[in-house]
């Protein structure tokens, strides 16, 4: 289960110069907006700086490349917006987490992620970083939800956990990026009740 | 179930001038290669013409725009490469069709489709055409597979067919475009046996 973790991201604060976290967030927000509008390939550090009314040097002090900035932005947003529920039941945890994830993906992050996905075949570094941050953040929460359910005796002995985690992500991403059908609570509940629980939950 | 169908595509043959179908295929193949390499936005009719060693006028006689060319290419390739199995059992049909689809998506069409997906949020006409051709082609085959299974009495009375069709596409696309894990026969069999059949098949 050990997973290599992308080692980039925001630089450590420079000596004697405390980092302003809210400034970092404003820069990430600008990066997200630019990416949602023009995609990864057309994004420039200049455009992000101009959107955030910052100097380009300000950005380069924090992130050494466009790739660093984009991946750190996705990672930070995912960690800030994907709270890990612990409702005491597998059904409750899955519904709550997947509803949060659906809401998160329906915003500008979803558009930015979709623009990134189109670039992955041509950008191997981006592909690796995207998989090791954005995808793994959601996968890890789902794995821990299943782990806790297992400790409570809620899973079948041979429950295919990896497949359940994969399908949960697949169902949401397919609506978001391919069909364009709504990522609403009704859909999340159908996926949880008709697909995920039958796949992994034990008979009571 | 009536679905609006994209009305573009290759033009009808001009009067007195028979169309050369193999020439059309060579032009589509060139379009596919260029799109897999540079994506939709950067694709130009000039680049396609040059790849196919054809004049630009030759291309414009057949397709009136880049959008027409790209969508017609995806549609034709899908119809040529996605034979509809009729093995006499739901399990057999699903395995055979999804294995063909996985193989088809693992080639250049998958890369081209991924490049298109990244552009959908910024290109509403492309998004509509992509959904009404590429996505509907696979969805319709799956619907007919379930329909035949129902006539043979293989489905549960309340089987959520739409959800099954959606998950089948989602599982393949997520591997192809997001995780990069292999789209192999073993994966297709797990999806069919552990997810799709339990979702829709009746107890024997």
UniProtKB/TrEMBL annotation, chains A, B:
> What's the superkingdom here?
Bacteria
Keywords of the record, alphabetical order, are: DNA-binding, Transcription, Transcription regulation
Which gene name does the record give? ydeS
What the entry lists under PANTHER family is as follows: HTH-TYPE TRANSCRIPTIONAL REGULATOR RUTR (PTHR30055), TETR-FAMILY TRANSCRIPTIONAL REGULATOR (PTHR30055:SF148)
The name this protein goes by in its record:
HTH-type transcriptional regulator YdeS
Work out whether the entry's keyword set contains Transmembrane.
Answer: no
**One GO molecular-function annotation for this sequence?**
transcription cis-regulatory region binding
Domain HTH tetR-type residue range list? 21-81
Keyword DNA-binding in annotation: yes
> Could you tell me which residues belong to the region Disordered?
1-24
DNA-binding region location: 44-63
């Amino acid at each position: 289960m050990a997973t290599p973790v992308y080692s980039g991201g925001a630089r450590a604060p420079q000596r004697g110069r405390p980092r302003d976290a809210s400034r970092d967030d404003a820069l990430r927000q600008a990066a997200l907006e630019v990416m949602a509008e023009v995609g990864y390939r057309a994004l420039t550090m200049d455009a992000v700086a101009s959107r955030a009314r910052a100097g380009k040097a300000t950005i380069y002090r924090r992130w050494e490349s466009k790739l660093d900035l984009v991946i750190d932005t996705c990672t930070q947003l995912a960690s800030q917006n994907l709270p890990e529920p612990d409702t005491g039941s597998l059904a409750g945890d899955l519904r709550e987490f997947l509803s949060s994830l659906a809401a998160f993906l329906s915003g500008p992050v979803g558009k930015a992620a979709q623009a990134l996905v189109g670039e992955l075949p041509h950008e191997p570094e981006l592909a690796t970083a995207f998989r090791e941050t954005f995808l793994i953040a959601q996968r890890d929460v789902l794995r821990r939800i299943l782990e806790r359910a297992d400790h409570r005796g809620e899973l079948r002995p041979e429950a295919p956990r990896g497949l359940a985690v994969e399908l949960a992500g697949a169902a949401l991403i397919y609506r978001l990026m391919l069909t364009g059908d709504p990522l609403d609570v009704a859909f999340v509940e159908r996926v949880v009740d008709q697909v995920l629980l039958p796949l992994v939950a034990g008979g009571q």
